[in-house]
Amino acid sequence: MSITSSAFTHPGHERQNNEDAYYVSDERGLWIVCDGMGGHQEGNYASHLVTDIFAEMQMSGSFDQKIDAVTSQIYNIHRLLQKKVQKMGQDAVIGTTLVMMLVEGNQAVSIHSGDSRCYILRDDRLSLVTQDHAKTVEHNGEDRKMLTKALSAPGELSIEMKRFNIQKNDTYFLCSDGLYEGVTAEQIKASLQAESIEIGLQSLTKRVLQGEAHDNLTGVIVRVNA
Q1: What is the pLDDT of residues 42-72, one digit of tens each?
Q2: I need a labelling partner for 92 at 20 to 30 A (CA). Which of 63, 85, 174, 221 fits?
Q3: Are 208 and 181 contacting, i.e. CB atoms less than 8 angstroms apart?
Q4: Which helix (H) or strand (E) holds 153?
Q5: Residue scoring higher pLDDT (144 or 35)
Q6: For residues 147 and 46, what is the distance between their CA atoms, to the nearest angstrom?
Q7: What is the structure's pLDDT at 16?
């Protein structure tokens, strides 16, 4: 089976900085989307720390050994964020969501922390591989979303891992909340069904940018070719 991907990121209409980051490597079977947080440039630092480290990371051995290496690297990144917070001061917060998919042969694993998502379109059915680590809280009379997990400091790291098998004609969609909150599930499904993943991603992001697009938006479509 061969795998191809297409990626897109945009700061949106309201934010000057883009604190999202992504990494794609069809050759390595590794795709990542991160949504940074922390204000100023700190969210940008956290999200790109993840993608930069994995871009340089060498992986070898069995699939299980690669998963162990990836997991260890995530904990290493969390320690680096903790050290940065210690230098920044007591009230500092820095972090990033993470959604990652690693594939070897027909084996796959998703690793995530936060509310960035991984969808799967299989046999004409769209579903979520991941479940959001977030809850709704009331703030000043308004409902707001609060993350319950992320790669963030200070605080402890908690990640969720799911192993599964890929199939021919599967299409996966990794994205930040700034993208999926601007479209419906039906629109996501229609875009993933496009013959060209580039055209599918273009149509999806165009829909978001025609709206308010108040947040950064990033998406990666990964297709398993027949």
Answers
A1: 899 999 999 999 999 999 999 999 999 999 9
A2: 174
A3: no
A4: strand 151-153
A5: 35
A6: 16
A7: 85
Length of the chain: 226
Report d(CA 71, CA 67) in Å as an integer. Answer: 6
Alpha-carbon distance 150 to 19, whole Å? 14
Q: Tokens standing for 49?
A: 């720390």
Dihedral angle over CA of 58, 62, 64, 70, nearest 10: 0
Q: If 0-12 CB within 10 Å is exposed, 13-18 middle and 19+ buried, where does residue 186 land?
A: exposed
Q: Is the pLDDT of residue 119 over 90?
A: yes
Please indicate, yes or no, whether the overall pTM of this predicted structure exceeds 0.85: yes
Residue 127: pLDDT over 80: yes
How far are the Cα atoms of 98, 143, 144, 215 from residue 137, in angstroms, in the given order?
Answer: 22, 6, 5, 19
